[in-house]
Amino acid sequence: MNFKLTTEQEMIKNMVREFTEKEVAPYDGEMDKKGEFPWHIIDKMRENDIFGIPFPEEYGGAGADAICEAITLEELGRGSASVAITLDAHMLCANPMHLFGTEEQKKKYLPDLVSGKKLGAFGLTEPCAGSDAAGIQTMAKLEGDHYVLNGRKAWITNFSVADVYIIAAKTNPDAGVKGISAFIVEKGTPGFIIGDKEDKMGVRGSDTGELIFDNCKIPKENLLGSEGQGFKIAMIALDSGRMGVGAFGVGIAQHAMEEAIKYANQRTAFGKNIGKFQAIQFMIADMATEIAAARNLVYAAAFKRDCKERFSLEAAMAKLYSAEAAMKITKNAIQVFGGYGYSREYPVERLLRDAKILEIGEGTSEILRMVIGGSMVK
């Protein structure tokens, strides 16, 4: 693995950073206060071809690698976790479509997803099936030339703003994980109901809520992959999703450290800037070290994906470490600010609230430790 970014990777990093600083970061505080989805930013992302960075040129993408995808999510996360998680959830739809879709499905859906003309979402989690993904209760029954879906999904990112959804449902309830299949469902399909929106602690500019399927009929050709392949599709999608969460977790942590350094160089106490004190320098030293370690874990996962090797372990490690590092770094950034860090006048308290979802979504820290530990003892 080459630790020096290629010319293309550097170009994408600089482009997304400039875009984020101009079009994303200035609006993050407003998104947090209002809890509104940032359509104006989505429009700008479309104009700058940010949705298509890691997808093949034949579908309208830039043909870049997974490291470029990680860089994109990190830079967006540095400006707004809400925008980064929106893109990551979109990728959870587009990536499995690219990997498992038939050529007809790819031609029908990928160009609009790659351009950002349509947003995507992935529906796995249910009210009683989060970490226990195999415990989903949504059912899909084949009736002639269509499937009938019944059930409910919860905590779905992009739930009301998406146009195309990949939904996991049981086609054979007696077969365990081998009885789960994946389906492409379009917004507006009869029986597909957009449910209630969640009022969240953080990433308040992202769109999160429930999906309801009440005798929802979808064409048989909207089966993604084959029957019984849904759990495999979900797990492969989550590998890339976890890599993405790790990446924008690095962005959140980087932002928090930059704010802490800036404040430490301005705030005076006992006759000098607090950045001169060893206690503050040690906290910043730990921040910088943990950010570098998290970023390298994310890149290692992306590198293995680019090599077309299984990267479940690396993705789990990257997501676990990045999530916990981001929580620690945002907490310590507040400590550097002192009382002002507890005020909404400054951004660090928002960064702490945003970072918390990293330890929960797309695999809790506890589940990831099970994944990593189980892999090690084998």
UniProtKB/TrEMBL annotation:
Domain Acyl-CoA dehydrogenase/oxidase C-terminal: 228-374
Keyword set includes Cell membrane: no
Limits of the Acyl-CoA dehydrogenase/oxidase N-terminal domain: 6-117
Residue span(s) of domain Acyl-CoA oxidase/dehydrogenase middle: 121-216
Record has Hydrolase as a keyword: no
UniProt keywords, alphabetically: FAD, Flavoprotein, Oxidoreductase
InterPro entries according to UniProt: Acyl-CoA_DH_CS, Acyl-CoA_Oxase/DH_mid-dom, Acyl-CoA_Oxase/DH_mid-dom_sf, AcylCo_DH-like_C, AcylCo_DH/oxidase_C, AcylCoA_DH/ox_N, AcylCoA_DH/ox_N_sf, AcylCoA_DH/oxidase_NM_dom_sf
The protein's required cofactors: FAD
PANTHER family linked: ACYL-COA DEHYDROGENASE, ISOVALERYL-COA DEHYDROGENASE, MITOCHONDRIAL-RELATED
Name this protein carries in UniProt: Acyl-CoA dehydrogenase family protein
